[in-house]
Structure prediction request, 610 residues.
Amino acid sequence: MNRRRFLKNAAAIPLLPIAVSQTLTTTAGRAATGIPVRRVRPGDPSWPPETEWNKLKQAVGGRLIEVESPLVPCQNSPDGAACAEFFRQLKNPYYIGDHPALTQTSGWVDAWTSAPSVYAVAAKKAEDVVAAVQFARVHNLRLVVKGGGHSYQGTSNSADSLLIWTRAMNSIVLHDAFVAEGCAGKQAPQPAVSVGAGAIWMHTYDAVTTKGGRYVQGGGCATVGVAGLIQSGGFGSFSKNYGLAAAGLLEAEVVTADGAVRIANACTNPELFWGIKGGGGGSLGVVTRLTLRTRELPKHFGAVFGKIKAKSPAAFRNLTARTVSFYHDQLFNRHWGEQISFEPGNSIKISMVFQGLNRQEADNVWRPFQDWVAGAPQDFVFEEPVKVVDIPARHFWDASYMKKNHPDVVVADDRPGAPEGNVLWAGDHGQAAFVLHGYRSAWLPASLLQKGQQHRLVEALVASSRHRGVALHFNKGLAGASTEDLAAAKDTAMNPTVLDAFALAIIAAGGPPSFPGIPGHEPDLIAARRHASEINKAMDELLKVAPAAGSYVSESDFFERSWQQSHWGSNYLRLAAAKRKYDPLGLFFVHHGVGSEEWSADGFTRLTGP
Ligand SMILES: Cc1cc2nc3c(=O)[nH]c(=O)nc-3n(C[C@H](O)[C@H](O)[C@H](O)COP(=O)(O)OP(=O)(O)OC[C@H]3O[C@@H](n4cnc5c(N)ncnc54)[C@H](O)[C@@H]3O)c2cc1C
Prediction:
């Protein structure tokens, strides 16, 4: 059978039973013969004809969207009111999330630019996902999956692709006593929450904490998608106390490349279960539902903010040394998370959070440090006084309460008729639709906090911060967590170096929303490349004291060379085996995802056969 006829026949049977259709697909057939596989693009003779798209549309209950770029008004009239309105809306992550053509990061200079798919299946149920997976496989299409759309690496968008868009799969159900399927008698029933693949953390926290009075470990940024974060491992502000978000996964429903709907948990499909816990989103299948354990809520959550400037480089070194020893002595425990940044202007910025303490207790912890700073006015000045706040934990993600009592820390979805619960942290607002100039991260080993080692860390932080601000995200390193949470994190695909890290150091820069080719709204390439160079220099200084540091798959360098080692370390071989088992033909491709080394950078050409 010649290729054209073969494709035509395959096109006529998009929803064949898996076993049959798999042997017929061009991907399978061609890979088996060693011929490079090329995914089809619009305009290619094998691109599915309209009749086929109509069949898919019917199969998914009409939920097939022909995706239009929202940039069209800007291409037609960059100075026009419609274009200005589009860029205004782009600062609203809920607007972005509700648009099939947009992503929360608009691009990364010299790496990628957000591009709409040709078609999107706005999935509402697992059957829609099955139909889309089958269609993409049979027609040899580039397939992408988007949930919350927060990938920094651009892994939830691709031109010329079919998108599975899970936004509408947003149900949230609480359980008092959940037992994973097939685990009866092996696992004790426990409180849990099941969410659809499109749920975001803000709505999940609202259901679990505000309404349910419980805690679920998720992400810090409220508009991140649950499915994307869990698959990348995932850290929230309180991860030192509750561990890795993925470690709280009890069960997932996953549509694999063969179109099967599989249950994955510790007792059923355990390798798939292990792989989606930190193995990276969009690589092993499409997760359609997740069930996460919930835990007891503490009485209080709170935060400490402030900024201290040193008046000379020598004073800055002292301040850095004092901050490191203060962190080690007082904050390196399960109460404390989030960040302290070391800035080029000889200042440190404090944005810490705590759990399980009240305001007075937290203030007592910080008092000696503040007194030390205040006692040397010749060396230091409080650019922002240290401020300690606490709130009843149950109100932490309570949008109405926060709008009323802490209006400066939340930003509301400003679209007419937007749900009351659509808010985000003001601290994350700057990242809405921004364009990255560079982003690197490194897990810093807790050994650097030992008294005899602290001077090395201090020197590295000082040297690094001469180039660019370095933020230590303490909640994104698990050293200091409980034995139980460390064991649960160890049973995930994430790089094991996270277990011994006291923090994830992040050095990054970005600019406002912009797109190449839109006059007046183009990325600033000169600034971007300068920032990227500064970030590299700053990270090189840190890596001198942490040469084997891994980096967090979701918050790492697009250009990372040894990404397999960096993101997954000793777990990569096992992860690659899971990939071969569940997606042997590489239907699911993402930049620097497991198995992506077998594909061209754009995921359209298979370079090596399975
Ligand atoms: C502003 C901002 C703040 C962030 N804050 C944090 C933080 O506090 N803690 C933290 O750990 N991380 C954080 N991240 C990183 C974030 O967790 C990851 O980028 C995460 O993968 C985003 O998930 P998403 O669903 O929102 O994004 P998407 O871009 O939709 O998805 C991310 C990846 O997962 C895949 N994917 C999504 N849904 C599915 C699905 N149902 N099945 C299979 N694959 C799927 C996509 O294909 C893509 O490859 C942040 C990112 C941003 C942009």
